[in-house]
Amino acid sequence: MKLTIALLAGDGIGPEVIDQAVKVSDAVAKKFNHEIEWQSALTGAAAIDAVGEPYPDETHEVCANADAVLFGAIGHPKFDNDPSAKVRPEQGLLKMRQKLGLFANVRPTFTFPSLIDKSPLKRERIEGTDLVFFRELTGGIYFGKRGREDNGDTAYDTCTYTRAEVQRIAKKGFEAAMKRSKRLCCVDKANVLESSRLWRETVQQMEKDYPEVEVSYEFVDAVAMRLVQWPKEYDVLITENMFGDILTDEASVISGSMGLMPSASVGSKVSLYEPIHGSYPQAAGKDIANPLATVLSAAMMFDDLGLAQEAQTIRDVVNKSLAEGMVTEDLADGGKAYKTSEVGDWLAKNI
Ligand code: IPM
Ligand code: MG
Fold first, then answer.
1. Ligand 1 atom nearest 137 alpha carbon
2. What is the pTM of this model?
3. Residues involved in catalysis
4. Does ligand 1 have an atom closer than 6 angstroms to the CB of 90?
5. Which residue's C-alpha comes closest to atom 10 of ligand 1?
6. pLDDT under 70 in the chain at which residues?
7. Which of 23, 57, 140, 173 is at a distance of 20 to 30 A from 318, taking alpha carbons?
């Protein structure tokens, strides 16, 4: 198979972890006789520095015409502490999600047997955790009307959802639940927010189309609590954009390191794959960041391209590296810590 993959390394540790995912993907492609054409393009602070825009039109062209997009990270500290900055790297990510129609952000949380004791939670609480969030990604407060009034002394952001937006993300959740353990949790704040009541009402109406799926409705604050108490009780969760942003960061550390969890953003056409972690500027250029979340994001990409064996080959070699202690410093725990690039080389070689 010939694949064209858009490669957006982005900022911070993005380029380093992306390099490893490329090595691993190329090794898999070679093993299974595929050919990958990588097309690099600019995003984030790197793009602002180069062309003054975090998601340039040329980058959009590359992404829109690719079979998939592999993405590193976005963000730079020089923008974080400057609330008056007119152009910010994160705007690039939001624009990209919107222009590519990536309305569903799929964020799994699972555990690795060899890392159970690295989790901040107790072993018996997390062993066997395997859940997945479907976070709505192109609506809600991220894209609602915002502004200032009262000479700048009052600010507002609004959370708006349409029934159709809720239906399409809920459909993804129901479909995933059908393939998994047939349990779906609708996360909302329907005791307070009107937009949440629309979510709940819409999902309730859809229940009849999926009679086998057992649906629970839980408030976001309760989910935040139960997620660290009994993560095993969850299977598929659907959330609006900002609740999902917060809960998926919380869920990602259950596995033991933030550097482990992959994600996919899907819509109607091309999909994008990226690690859940951010740009981790303190580690940029040091060759110490954990590349596994990005490597596992590439596995999700192969899966979605219909290449299940290729995806499984990547997951197997990742498990092998963890079991054999071929890990970066976040997981080394006093043992030998390998460089980002060494882990990538080892994975590619062992494929
Ligand atoms: C994420 C990130 C982004 C978000 C930021 C960088 C805009 O936190 O992908 O979760 O809030 O969606
Ligand atoms: Mg986030």
1. 12
2. 0.94
3. 142, 189, 221, 245, 249
4. yes
5. 245
6. none
7. 173
Phi first, then psi, for residue 114 (nearest 5°) are: -75, -5
Structural domain total, the chain: 2
Residue 285 CB burial class (10 angstroms; 0-12, 13-18, ≥19): exposed
**Do 2 and 70 reside in the same domain of the chain?**
yes
Residue 274 Cα: closest atom of ligand 1: 9
Task: Quote the tokens at residue 329.
Answer: 């410093």
Does residue 220 sit in the same domain as residue 99? no
Whole-number pLDDT of residue 136:
98
Helix (H, G, I), strand (E, B) or coil at 55: coil
Q: Given ligand 1 and candidates 90, 258, 265, which is best to mutate, with the most ligand atoms within 8 Å of its CB?
A: 90
**Which pLDDT does position 71 carry in this prediction?**
97
Contact call for residues 1 and 34 (beta carbons, < 8 A): yes
Measure the CA–CA gap between 55 and 51, rounded to whole angstroms. 9
- pLDDT at residue number 34: 98
pLDDT at position 282 is 95
CATH of the domain at 209: 3.40.718.10
Ligand nearest 249 Cα, by number? 2
Task: Give dist(CA 132, CA 129) in Å, integer.
Answer: 10
